[in-house]
TrEMBL record:
First and last residues of every TPR repeat: 173-206, 236-269
PROSITE patterns the UniProt entry points to: PROKAR_LIPOPROTEIN (PS51257), TPR (PS50005)
Signal peptide: 1-18
Keywords: Repeat, Signal, TPR repeat
Organism from which the protein derives: Gemmobacter aquaticus
Pfam families (alphabetical): TPR_16, TPR_19, TPR_2
Name of the protein in its database record: Flp pilus assembly protein TadD, contains TPR repeats
């Protein structure tokens, strides 16, 4: 009888233990599912910020933020998506709300400053940049600092910021091109030419730098195309730019010849060059 009683206690204990284990397993499963959902959501957010269509990205983050209001990562994603979608003013509002909530970071302030610059709100952008701790030394921060200094014609400060930004990235072509364009606007054509060449050494495919290089050379009356990689279409477009630069400098005959060459070089009908040539001949 005593043995039967002990067996009954053991069975009861085993049943209770199984029940406890089941409860623990359910809790662990729920936590695991939640963790997986967070990971999946994080991966999806990353995809939407990189390869997704900008408008789809905006819709995704808007919808997800409505379901999870106040989450800083979603606000950040929406602000970045709005910038990609060409809506800097709306982006600035999201950045402002995030920073005002106390959940923003120094990098968020950099994003806010860029949205303000894209919205042509330069004084506001400068004020935001001034609030960023000096220890936050990043490529984007100094790139924007250079642009603000440029807008105020503080050339020495702009050069210093451009130089610092170029040293903080492994892909400096864009900032070197911007720096060169700044030099071009100042009338330092030789300095601009040097920077555009440096930009193209880092990214031989950057057509904007190629076009700017031709402008800098044209301003110095260098009317031969630079030795850079170019397609036939790009060659025609660069000849067109150089032809207009020559006309602007008063070298009309050279300009006409360059425009004629541009029309002949282009693989299709080059309407803009043909129109400019006709106007010049007329």
């Amino acid at each position: 009888m005593r043995q039967i009683f002990l067996i009954g206690l053991c069975l009861a204990g085993m049943t209770s233990l199984a029940a406890c284990n089941k409860g623990l397993d359910d809790a662990e499963v729920k936590r695991a599912i939640k963790d997986v959902n967070v990971i999946d959501e994080s991966n999806l957010s990353e995809i939407m910020l990189t390869v997704g269509d900008p408008n789809e990205s905006v819709a995704y983050f808007t919808r997800t933020l409505q379901q999870n209001p106040g989450r800083p990562d979603l606000q950040r994603g929406l602000a970045k998506s709005l910038m990609r979608a060409g809506q800097p003013e709306d982006s600035a509002k999201i950045w402002s709300g995030l920073i005002g909530s106390g959940q923003g970071t120094a990098e968020d302030q950099v994003g806010y400053a860029e949205a303000l610059i894209r919205s042509n709100k330069w004084p506001e952008a400068e004020a935001v940049l001034n609030q960023i701790p000096p220890t936050h030394e990043t490529y984007d921060r100094y790139r924007l600092e250079a642009m603000v200094a440029d807008s105020k014609k503080q050339w020495q400060k702009a050069d210093s910021f451009y130089d610092t930004a170029a040293g903080l990235t492994t892909r400096p072509a864009s900032v070197l091109n911007n720096w060169g364009y700044s030099k071009l606007n100042r009338g330092d054509y030789a300095g601009a030419e040097k920077l555009f060449n440096e930009a193209l050494k880092n990214d031989p495919s950057m057509f904007t730098a190629k076009n700017n290089l031709v402008l800098a050379r044209g301003a110095q009356r260098k009317y031969d195309l630079p030795v850079v990689e170019m397609t036939q279409r790009e060659r025609a477009e660069l000849l067109y730019t150089l032809g207009l630069a020559a006309v602007k400098r008063g070298d009309v005959t050279v300009g006409r010849n360059l425009l004629e060459e541009a029309v002949e070089t282009h693989p299709q009908h080059f309407e803009a060059a043909a129109r400019s040539l006709a106007a010049l001949q007329g």
